[in-house]
Fold these 2 entries.
Entry 1:
Amino acid sequence: MRLERANLLQIYYLMRLTRAMEDRTRTLFLQGRVAGGVYTAQGHEATTVGAAWTLGDGDFIVPQHRDLGMHLTRGCSPRAVMTQWLARGNSPALGRDGQIHIGDMHHGIVPMISMLGESLPVACGVALTMKMRKRSTVVMASMGDGATSTGPFHEALNFASVQKLPIVFVIENNGYAYSTPTYQEFAIADLSDRAVAYGILGESVDGNDVLKVVETFGRAVEYVRGDKGPALIECKTFRVRGHSEADKADYVPPELREEWLAKDPIPRFEEYLTREQILTSALKAEIAEQVKAVVEDAVNFAEQSPAPDPATVANYVFAPEGPIAIIGETGAEDQRYINALDHRTGKPFNTMTDTGKPEFVVTEEVGRR
Amino acid sequence: MPTSIKMPRLGESVAEGTIGSWLKNEGDWVERDESLAEIITDKINAELPSPVAGRLAKILVKVDETVPVGADIALIEENADVSASPPAEPVPGPDVAPIENPDRANVMVRENMSVSDGNSSKASTRASSVHVEERQRISPLARRLAREHDIDLNSIAGTGIGGRVRKEDILAYVEQRQVPVGPQFTAPVVGMTRTGKTIFTPAPVGSQFVAPPSTPSTTFEEDGIEVVTPSRMRLAIAEHMVRSKRTSPHATTVVEVDMTNIAKWLEKNKEDFKKREGYSISYVPFVMKAVCEGIRKFPYMNSSWTEDNKIIVKKHINLGMAVATDVGLVVPTLYDTDQYTLAGLAKQISTIAQRTRANKLTIQDMQGSTFVVNNPGTFGTILSVPIINQPHAGILSMDAVVKRPVVIEDDAIAVRYMMYLSLSFDHRILDGAGAGGFLQTVRTKLQSYSREIDVY
Amino acid sequence: MSAVTYLEAIGQAIREEMQRDEAVFLLGEDVGTYGGAFKVSAGLLEEFGSERVIDTPMAEDAIIGSAVGAALMGMRPIAEMQFIDFITCGFDQIINMANKMYWRTGMPVPMVIRGPSGGGVKGGPFHSASPEAWFFHAPGIKVVVPSTTYDAKGLLKAAIRDNNPVLYLEHKLLYRLPELREELPTEDYVVPIGKAITRREGEDMTVLTYGAMVHQCLKAAQTLEQEDDLQVEIIDLRSLAPLDKESILESVKHTNKVLIVHEDTLTGGIGAELAAILAEDLFEYLDGPITRVAAPDAPFPYAPPLEAAYLPSMEKILAAARKLAAY
């Protein structure tokens, strides 16, 4: 996958934005402003941004809880993310759910649940549908190393393989399933070896090297789009913080953490960009400024947003009659076109998620597409 | 005894099977587990292995015939004349497996419990406290009904399990309080407006109305006489008749009505109407309609004289209507009678009559009437003098419609369908002029119909 | 048009909905080439092809999960459980994925999960389940249970057209019962979800029931009329979630006594909730205790005498009704 200068800057911006959003969320959590637990993914940015970067409009991610980078890359608004963390009444989940459990089909984001691994069969259904609709859609379904131990992992990979579904399965192997180290989770060196059992493409890649991630996923996406069946890509990375911000993760040997902190994907990429004279110190400052502004805007927006109305607590359990959202309907020109409103709010699905500015805009044209 | 071979259940949802072919002929020897026939079902086709060895004595189901699962399809004679064949044993059915009888198990558990509960002082304490705290058993519905109708529950003996007071008991009690007005009919005395305002509270019903059985009983017979304890309802009727005669100074006045046009219309249309609507139409809706018109013109006919000498005139016209039942006559209420068309009234009458005969009247049905129309004419009577249903101001009897020679216009004599309407009224409230005027209005209305009547 | 079985009515509903709407498709184990373990989907593969009649691996989580994914995209999948007992293998996809989806994301999940339920066919502990109470308790899914051939078709069509997950529990005992054969209307019809139906009118007590037990109760009602002069009203709930509270309350207000009969186990069953509703809303209309006849709190047994003792029998229903009537 060929990356122009503007693409590289955009990837860098998104990685920085992801990190900054999570740093800010942690601060809000420590301040007691986040309603529930906080799960971050420091160290995953090259994987999440790099993998999602290789998708196009009309493609889907089926993310998990450490995939903020994927969300932002897909175009999900930082404002939406912050309203979720702060449990606001106008959040995409209307306060019913938090974290980055943001269903946003307009941006090709399939809502996740906390039962990790259970999203993988759902990804099969999305891919199956697009196959029926003769779209060349690719679905990228991610999971941690932990989820590879679940039944749904096997069921989904097997079903996808049998049906030759256009899915790129992403394993973000970050060393731990909560406190359980990989050697207690599985007895193989590379999780991509699992692909052999399903007769599908399997590959492992350094998940902290964004250029390698983009390159690998670029190939994988092209492969599955070519109707060759699914692919399984393992990104080797590391969760340098705890499972949640309430976990100090003292079960992780300090030297192991140090080792991976030294491989932090952001400085690594910065080094490359500087070396290639793509990133000047002025540009770096400008990007830092914009990241700060976007995060500030998101937090302010969320803090000024209303709390959900307790009187609505029993609402929205059942969808009313009427047209349902059809995404990427055969014949629709815009692959992301959704032909119905969110019945809960009476507004389009992207009303909330399209606010804010996930993209870095400088005088030079910088854009993902 | 030959063993019968049954159509097997080949699949959990399969309900029937077809004989594809018989692999043995009648008279053939068949070994146990040897294929007897080919069975075809919705799900699978299979060969049926014989459950026993013997001679195929009889084929009961022909090829291509379909029978339900479990049906006999053939008989095999096991005691066939082959000594080598194994001794016959009954084919074990699925229901004879040696399992414990669950009932017996339950009994044993209970016995164990009673043994372990052998602390006698504790047990007796419990027993006595139960005795002291014994309360009347009553269903929630009966409790509510009793409260709504101001009924002392202690005065009611329940007929449910353990003497529990239930809906029927309360309804019977209320019905019995609604003392009948004449031998042919009874009517409610719990006079309440529809809004629930009590206009008349009946005198407390004595305990003698509680104790007697609901059906009459003969206590002894001698010397050609028979002493009968009347039913509760009979006693209530008796009490109410006496009280009504004692309370209201009755006066009775009669008019004769020419019902010819209505009678002809009914003769012509009755059957069609019933076919079309599913219920019958009779003279009664016509009379009720006319009574409503009369009451509108003479509102005091729809009133009550109170104990403190006031007259309460009721705005709603709720006619009581006598319906015969096995246990006597009851008078359920048609609320807002004046609001219905003739067909509407016919429907109401039919519905309520059915409910009455099915003994399914509600308390609502038994209260709130303001005036009664009684129809002894169905028994062929031509002139009746009714007793007022307290606390009403009047009661109207309609007698039989009969053909009579009548002097009509120009002094001609014609055969007409005639009916007497007899009104008994409370002379405290009304005089002859009012009563007569009321009857005139009723008659005029009834005679105003032409041969073509729009009942809608 | 000739009379069809309950099973054929289900097949008809699927076929007609697939013809009517391209978004409708069927997936499950052995539904294609084999036509389903009970032959519900016989002939569908030939008519619609393998893209819309999908033989899946033996993987209930993947079947239901894929259905959720497709539904999110605006499809209307029908996920078949070969026996409804196996729905437990996909429980999470229903409870956590499908049920909560619209509520938290605004994305409807129009899908049907259906399969043979119920006992009486010697299916034993793993092929006789009546799983309705688990789902009845879980917000976000509708649960329907047809008892007649007409309803089997009409309710399935309504379920397919509904914008929510619908669990459609077909009773395998009824699949091929000759007495349930019925001539169905040639024109399109649905039986609306959420509406009970009075199968028999009566004054003396209301029986609330559903599924195969409707027929058991109708037989019992006949006996009660002939032998006890009791008029029993029978309400076939048809839809357990949402419940037609209005019809239930209206009937019990009228009869003042209520007997609840279901094949599922007693504790925490549908009857428990019905009893609670009646006690809360109609306490002062009750002229006797709310009575339940249900399976005992034990797993479904295999041996015929045990199965017979387990299921609500005519004798149990009659005894309970008589006791209630005399109360």
Entry 2:
Amino acid sequence: MSDDGNSVTPDGAEDGTVLQKPVDRRGALGMIAAGVATGVAAASACRPLNAATPEERELKVLEWQEFTQKHYRRMTDAERAETIRRIERLAKIRHDEDVTIATTDAQPGVVFGYAFNKSKCKGYRNCIEACINENNLDRASDTQYIRIFEMEDGLVNLEEADATYQHEVPAEGHFYLGTQCFQCADPPCVPVCPVGATWQEPDGIVVIDYNWCVGCRVCMAACPYWARRFNWAQPEVPLDEVNPNQHYLGNRARKKGCVEKCTFCIHRTRKGQLPACVEACPTGARVFGNLLDPDSEIRWVLANKNIFRLKEELATEPRFWYFSD
Amino acid sequence: MWTRLVNGVVCLAVVGIASGCVDEQHPERETAALAADTGLTDIDPAVAAFNAQRQPGELPVVQAAPVDRWAGPGARPFEVAVRTSKQEAGHPRRFGSITLETALRIRPVSQYPCTSCHFGRTVVMTDDRIDDAHQNIQPVHPEETGAVCSTCHLADNVERLALTQGAPVTLTESYRLCAQCHFQQAEAWAGGAHGKRLDGWQGRRVVMGCGDCHDPHSPAIQQRIPFRAPELERARTTHE
């Protein structure tokens, strides 16, 4: 029985069951939808007999179930497992992709922090290249989580900065500043979401349930760092370039009309690996680690280097610091 | 000299047998195994012993010498990846469907091993005739600092590095030589602010050595064409 007391029975029965199975409102809707889908498939199958293959019928059912799935944080472990199986199966049916989707939770005692050495970055953009491929970013609209701004020495002015430079780097008299989602400790993008589709995880990563997102883009307006990206169309990744190592809250396939953003490579970092941008950086300008570990490199940087954060006066407390040699 | 002879002879003989094996009775086998893996000809037996337990695919490493002010975060010991003379010295890593070289210096060491010429007394290292054989090597530092070959290299063994204090070290511990002058960089490197950590934020801390990014004979960062620019034209025009 559901815990919110909103259980309904489509057939009006008092015992709250459909086919002797406890069900809540959402579950009932899903079951009805699945039934309708099967019916639709069956009806269409009637015209030329058996025109809908079993796979097409399965696809319709799965799509309806996906449409009616719960919020990620309200799923039980069993429901999560079922959701993952469904997404993996959908990827198989739709694109013949064998993907593995993790639901790895945050490690206890870990809050991620990031530091960027503005003296070391030379503007090669290898981080962007790695990010695009690691996170299955949309190739058609050229979605990129990271921006590298070329700036004149002595100025930190993002208005005057150029993120579209295309010449040999490092350019004389310039330095480079990278931005991405800063995973703020007080993220302004989270409370504005009207449906609660974005939230902060215990390890500090701000994540999005792509299936729950309604695409209103209010979070994008709230973010002072322009960190979020919107899918105006169905994202496209060439089949042979899909990274099959995925996370539900990270680099799995997004849908048209949902918002996405950098998750510090949640599928890697929760396993102890470095984010792709950190690992790909050829100059070692990026430092990543656990802020709660006093013996971590990130803590050493924060304790021993001159650091600053972007738009610190907004008090969003980004967990992303800049430092220089 | 002992190590070099051992390497020369044993390297070919026991590569197949010794790689991956731990044999405390035969340190020369560990040395030979590491030599075969890395392509280095001069390996400190202590370094070879430290790498004896290495699993296939793991990087050969050197335990960073505990030098004053290099303790690093929490005074934890850390390890320095050995730069090999092979092509994979660029530390290629896979991101989705692509593989990128993640170190700045991706070309193998040129004209290595040094012993192919500087063996025995056939070619003696001199400080004033560098252009004869090493046209590609420019004086590392401006001439006013007075750096010559023997400032870093041991005069009678080019593959050993001459520290100002203590015994000469092999090329795998080049960070000790660099740190003698670049002590600020060395401190930041040990702390984690300079250089780069490999293979994860958790667990063993393995960092790149100085030579992974900086060509010792041309340490300045080179210019190159970056990865393609993002298409931000729409955003730009809406703003103007």
